[in-house]
Design goal:
Blueprint lengths: L1 H4 L6 H6 L19 H6 L2 H4 L2 H20 L4 E3 L6 E3 L1
Antiparallel strand pairs: 1-2
Length: 87
C-alpha cells in the first residue's frame, strides 16, 4: 500500500518522472492525463464507462449481503452464477 501512496507502482508517470525510462507519462488507455494511481483508480474516462460501475456494484452487493446476514437472512450463492438466494 505504501508503494501506491508514493506513486511507486509500475505506472507510466512513475517510469517517466522517477525512473526516467519512459518518454510519455500519459495514460495508456485515455491519453488525456498522467497515468498515476489516482487517475487509474478514479479519474480515467475509459475505465469510468464500465470498470468503476462493476467495482461499485460488487462493493454494494457485499455490503448488502453482510447487512442482510446480520439481520438474520441466510444467503447462498447459486452454483455457476453470481446470484444469491435466501435459504
Amino acid at each position: 500500500m505504501v508503494a501506491a501512496q508514493d506513486q511507486a507502482l509500475n505506472m507510466k508517470y512513475y517510469a517517466t518522472k522517477i525512473l526516467h525510462t519512459e518518454t510519455d507519462s500519459k495514460c495508456r488507455l485515455c491519453q488525456q492525463r498522467d497515468e498515476t494511481i489516482d487517475h487509474i483508480i478514479s479519474a480515467c474516462p475509459i475505465l469510468a464507462k464500465e470498470e468503476y460501475v462493476k467495482r461499485h456494484d460488487k462493493v454494494n452487493a457485499q455490503i448488502h449481503l453482510t447487512f442482510s446476514r446480520k439481520q438474520g437472512c441466510n444467503w447462498t450463492k447459486n452454483t455457476g452464477t453470481n446470484v444469491y438466494q435466501t435459504q
